[in-house]
Fold:
Amino acid sequence: MNNTAAHDDHHGPEKGLLRWIKTTNHKDIGTLYLWFAFAMLIVGGALAMGIRAELLHPGLQLMDPHFFNQLTTMHGLIMVFGAIMPAMVGLGNWLIPMMVGAPDMALPRLNNWSFWILPFAALILVSTFFMEGGAPAFGWTFYAPLSTAFAPDSTDFFIFAVHLLGFSSIMGAINIIATVLNMRAPEMRLMDMPLFVWTWLITSFLLIGAMPVLAGVVTMMLTDRNFGTAFFDATGGGDPVMFQHIFWFFGHPEVYIMILPAFGIISHILPTFARKPLFGYSSMVYATASIAFLSYIVWAHHMFLTGMPVAGELYFMYATMLIAVPTGVKVFNWVATMWKGSLTFEAPMLWALSFVFLFTIGGFSGLMLGIAPADIQYHDTYFVVAHFHYVLVTGSLWAIIAATLYWLPKWVGKMYNEKLAKIHFWWAMISVNVLFFPQHFLGLAGMPRRIPDYSLQFADFNWISSIGAFAFGLSFILFAYIVVDCIRNGAPTSERPWYSAKGLEWTLSSPAAYHSFNTPPSRAEILEESQHS
Amino acid sequence: MISKSALAEYGLNMTQGVTSTSQDIYDLHMLIFWVCVVIGVVVFGAIFYSIISFRKSQGAKAAHFHESTTVELIWTGIPILILIAMAIPASKVLIDIETLDKADMTVKITGHQWKWQYEYPEQGIGYISNLAQSSKDAINSDKKPENYLLEVDNPLVLPVDTKIRFLITSSDVIHNWWVPELAVKQDANPGFINDSWTEIDKEGVYRGQCAELCGKDHGFMPIVVEAVSKDAFAAWVAGQKAGAEAAAASATKTWSEDELMASGENIYNTNCSGCHQKDGSGIPGVFPAMSGSSITNGPAAEHLDIVINGKGGMPAFKMLGDSDLASVITYERRAFGNSGSVVQPSDVTSAR
Structure:
């Protein structure tokens, strides 16, 4: 072990651009993932600005409906596959080896490959905008037959891009499982692992289970489009509803893939700024595992209106309602963590607190949507749009921003500008609610989603929502400035800038060395830094 | 009272509608809503209490408890009880909605890109319902009519106090037929027939929209239901039958080219211009151009086949009458600088 350590010291990062192309280092790859995700967030955000600009007033002011459909489709695809998922993988890359006392990821070359597939997949996806017939215009859920017989030729490029994104995610998941199970410090038991590691381990199993199903459904689309099969075409003996079953068998685990690591992040930040250990560590682990299990058996609650028999609707309604139980346990545990703590409100804490608040609102609307008869009136309206933006934007994205600010001092050894970060928080917090809260009213009043123009009774709330959207979009310029300013000009920090923080990553220097742990931490160190001591 | 009418204007909440189903769903929605509000008050109250009372700046010292099996069991058990209490009325409403013993009449609804077709098999009538011209004209204008995008040329006319079964399907992609005030929302799947039902309590005009993304003009295929008394419905059916006979008679005569072109232009602008554009230029890569095409300038047989039976992304238009099809095909072959042959209603009859 000593020999390896001495050997490793000779390996610093390479100089120049090649460092980033050839790197097998978990920190470099984590950085690449995070910048890639941020770039995609800006691209997907720009598309959203286009959507909200068209919806500012009734009528068609800026674009024809076909282009509007391209914007909604690509916004969804880019945000899900380009922004949220890669950002979570980036955080996993940076943090998991440091949290489990390992030097690096278990499969470093695979790690390099899983990242470098992404920019090409994204380029292929975005290039469809410039092809004849335009980009995919059938929604991010790409229901057949709109995405098969009725779609432009560029759809085949979309299918290829989805395959590549799937490869990347599956390899990333294998790497995380191998790292957590094989590279963990020998003295660290599973129930000593911090929650971010636990949630990512469970997420990896969701990825390995769900992504091949996505690959399967797009392959069936490919053969339906080009090779004369009829999986989704009733005239050839197929069934368009089968597409939805397969898609959502992937799609429902997918939404938990995006939120479970966020649960982990929040479970680190709240105890630090409440100066109190996480309440109910083991119940948090069990709740995460229960949510992951349930995510595989509730998919058809997205399909209550497809003509399902009543017994099917009842089953999927009950199974869906069950998810509220472990999710509720998590929220209650977070509140109990704060109870009788000693709270301070640094920027990461503000983001984490507003996560608990706003994610819970998204959870309530999710519970309402799960009630099958009520879903008749909610389905495919702006109520659904409001719901999934509350869980994905003020859920997943909020956690990603919180994590960035919380661990940035560890990554770069410098502190961000707290005052600017607080301004950014309040700016985003207010504008995001102006943006998404009125969409609940629009949906209940009957505005369908994915329409480029609307009748006059929806005009006022759409105007408010668009104004909120522009303000929210602008807030990311400030966020980029805060991060760059920290990297360039931040004040140097100690190894534990949040002195109440616990976790093995805080025992490393700031910035952390290129290889995290050359000798595994001892049992005493692990227990000292664990979340349940 | 004042505040209530002000809220209604903006549409903050779900409609109570005009059927027992829509009322049941509204009641269920409000029940879950208030359950969520109560849970929200407790949870958010605890968060705000913590934020206010347990601040370090106020000298709060952190306690060290971090586990309690009793507490965990309580907040696993109570939500389960709440969920069971919600599941009971929800199951009851769902089973009511999904059960129809015997319908008094049937309406078949077919979704097409981007219009609805209504057929009354028992009465032997049927027609197409498109977005009204007044709304189309207002898309790019500042003056919008009152029911902008929620007005059609031929509304679905239904009698009140009658159990009506809907058979819902599609000829191309998946659509969804939704009228909020009836609380009927059902996917229209190509190649399959879904059913749903309603019994309208109150006469009136009820508006809805397609609720499943179905391509370019998804936002422009509204639904208007006119609920009338049973007598008025019978009178309307008689009128429709007389109109259908007149149309059948016109299909046997030979039309002049001017007559065909005049009627064809209207039908083209209603049914075809959404994709192929008003000037016949199409959208490259998605919707072929009409002008200069080998179909519109070539033999009529191929042109007839594509319009009647559809091809790839192009939907079939066999639901249009013979004279309408002859007019629109002639228009496509003679307008936009094309020089194809004139097509007569009798040609359509034999091509079917």
